[in-house]
Write a structure and sequence with these properties.
359 residues, alpha/beta, Immunoglobulin-like, Rossmann fold, 6-stranded parallel sheet
């Protein structure tokens, strides 16, 4: 049984060595005029040594302005642009913009971190343009009342653009709310693919009534943090970020699915499950002393995923809230199976205007 673990460790060491060797041979350079960096908000935490460890999730891409790509994407989504209103076409163009990009491979992005001298080089970007890293800085870098580490990508002195990112400090103890987005806090109708695509690319995003106020009430406790989890592709981060701010939801880390091609826009149920479980397991491992509230909906596999997590991490899960979009009663066989072995008082099924069941 020990052989695979040793092999995994050896493979990991070789990968780190290769990344370090490659990073030393590649030179960081200011971004070209047609290149952009998008950062996804991450988490930060205090280390035993008194420093701050924080995650950086970057995507380097080059815009592709060709009109043909715009129309190919619309055709793939089965959207007739001519039948859309001017406002809807403009909305589609904005939300589809990052699906018309080319990811940049083997580039080194340098970070300028607020309160820290010098620049920090991220690992070279992968084939999908992504560079992810966990960095350590002095504790003074976590600034402001919410203790946020802020940074931006280094650009040429003559370049006025600023591609900004942040990681919010999560205390060792407190409540973490892991919240699904689609059909949990935003009306999407994932179960109807045609309606889902229209709600995602064409229509105005509409929040689920009452969810923002419930979350703000939870956020009144200073040690509460939010982690927004979705199988939506990372290209949709800008409009989703605008939705969270405009809808009055508390700030937090965002965890979207890795997908830098429009051909993988719609995930399979298996891909969604793998993504969500991986994110939740990582958060639980990073913060073993925190209590976790899992919030989702009944439209897909949230009950089954959360039930599995609750059985594997007894003591860490503070509660589970499922928004009922399938009109299944709590006594339904599906819930009995999903939450088998989970404390009856731990999980809740709510309708849109029900009182919030967890404090």
């Amino acid at each position: 049984m020990k052989r695979p673990i040793i092999d995994d460790l050896w493979s990991h060491m070789l990968r780190v060595l290769c990344l370090c060797t490659l990073a030393s041979t590649l030179q960081a350079a200011p971004l070209d005029a047609d290149e952009e960096v998008m950062f996804i908000p991450g988490i930060a935490r205090a280390t035993d040594a008194g420093a701050i460890e924080f995650d950086v999730h970057a995507w380097l891409h080059e815009k592709e302005p060709l009109l043909v790509a715009h129309r190919v994407l619309a055709r793939y989504l089965d959207l007739d642009l001519e039948k859309l209103s001017p406002l809807e076409r403009a909305r589609f163009s904005r939300r589809a913009a990052l699906f018309r990009t080319e990811s940049e491979e083997d580039n080194v992005i340098e970070l300028v971190i607020e309160g820290v001298k010098g620049r920090v080089a991220l690992p070279p970007t992968a084939r999908n343009g992504r560079s992810d890293a966990r960095l350590t800085v002095d504790a003074s870098a976590a600034r402001g009342p919410e203790e946020v580490v802020r940074f931006h990508a280094y650009t040429a002195l003559t370049d006025p653009r600023r591609f900004k990112g942040e990681a919010r400090l999560v205390p060792a103890q407190g409540l973490s709310v892991i919240s699904d987005i689609d059909d949990t806090i935003k009306h999407t109708n994932v179960r109807d693919q045609r309606d889902m695509l229209l709600n995602t690319f064409v229509r105005r995003f509409t929040p689920v009534e009452g969810m923002a106020s419930h979350y703000r009430a939870l956020a009144a406790s200073p040690d509460t943090r939010f982690h927004y989890l979705s199988a939506s592709p990372i290209q949709l981060y800008p409009p989703l970020a605008d939705f969270l701010v405009g809808g009055g939801f508390p700030p937090g880390s965002v965890h979207l699915r890795e997908s830098t091609t429009w051909r993988t826009l719609i995930p399979s149920e298996g891909e969604s499950r793998i993504h969500k479980l991986a994110v939740i397991e990582r958060l639980l491992a990073d913060f073993p002393q925190r209590r976790f509230l899992l919030v989702g909906d009944s439209g897909e596999s949230d009950p089954e995923i959360y039930g599995e997590v609750a059985r594997a991490h007894v003591g860490q899960i503070h509660g589970i809230v499922i928004r009922n979009v399938t009109q299944e009663p709590r006594e339904a066989a599906r819930y009995a199976k999903a939450f088998e072995g989970v404390d009856e008082g731990l999980w809740h099924v709510i309708h849109e205007k029900d009182a919030w069941p967890v404090r």
